Predict the 3D structure of the following.
Amino acid sequence: MKVVLLGEIKGKGGEGDIVDVAQGYAENYLFPKKLAVAATKGNLKQLEERRNNIEKREAVRLADATALKETLDGKQVTVDVKVGDEGVLFGSVTAAMIADAIKEQLGTEIDRKRVELGKPIKVAGAHEVTISLYRDIRTTVVVLVGVKPEELVSEDAEAEVAEEEAAAEETAE
């Protein structure tokens, strides 16, 4: 069944797109939630009339997503959780916790559904998490779980010192 989308639907398309979906999906989900209308001749004609407005809104959304990507790209966010022995967490870090930490620490509101976590984080340390901002625009944020940024820097410094000592020993031999 062909439908005209009235908003963005992840995996299907954006506003104004004509997509083919299962009839049950359209009738039981898309139509009642006003996310789409049937692709009839009348609705297609209305779509053509609204095409200019849709393109303007799309350009604004893309600009906002690009600006947000530049704001978030490569930033670090700390999530405070209880850590047990050997770096294993009591519980786990979820997408909602990461979204809340981004809002609190970076001042940027992100929908938790946009955080592409896959499965919850259950180990302390630094984890790279991808955030889908809009369609194919994505950014990566480093989430520090149960670790302070200063501790991470000292661990990196210790690793560099160990590498330098190993290199010095090899040249001495």
In short: The mean pLDDT is 84. The first helix runs from residue 23 to 30. The chain has four helices and nine strands.
